[in-house]
Amino acid sequence: MADPELEAIRQRRMQELMAQHGTGKQGNQQIPEQENGQEDAKREADERRQMMLSQILSSQARERIARIALVKPEKARGVEDVILRAAQMGQIVEKVSEERLIALLEQINSQTTKQTKVTIQRRRGVDDD
């Protein structure tokens, strides 16, 4: 290889590394724009989700889910997903009351509770005759 070719390869590699680490001019401008776009899309999707839930759930049911979300956010998100899917399929025709939400939570709990099993293994000691 000739020197100009080697230098061109080095320059390309240096630009790639700078873009990966965010130190290049192009890298700094594109990364925040992409992050802002992703954040905006995520925020907009969350707003749509909350609007749909406010139409489906009664105020007491929304409060209960909010309290659940304080303790177990992943569980609250799962319950919201189940409710939204049911509404999209047409299974929910009226607002979900707190009592119906409690019944749904109990049903989900019974399906997801893990059975714990304790096994005691007794070792034979030296003194056992």
UniProtKB/TrEMBL annotation:
GO cellular component terms given for this protein: cytosol; nucleus
UniProt xrefs under PANTHER family: PROGRAMMED CELL DEATH PROTEIN 5
Species, as recorded: Arabis alpina
Highest taxon in the source lineage: Eukaryota
Name of the protein this chain belongs to: DNA-binding protein DDB_G0278111-like
One Pfam family from the record: dsDNA_bind
GO biological process, one term: DNA repair
Family in the record: Belongs to the PDCD5 family.
Disordered, as annotated region: 16-48
GO molecular function: damaged DNA binding
Feature: compositional bias, Basic and acidic residues: 39-48
Feature: compositional bias, Polar residues: 26-35
InterPro entries found in the cross-reference section: PDCD5-like, PDCD5-like_sf
Gene3D superfamilies: PDCD5-like (1.10.8.140)
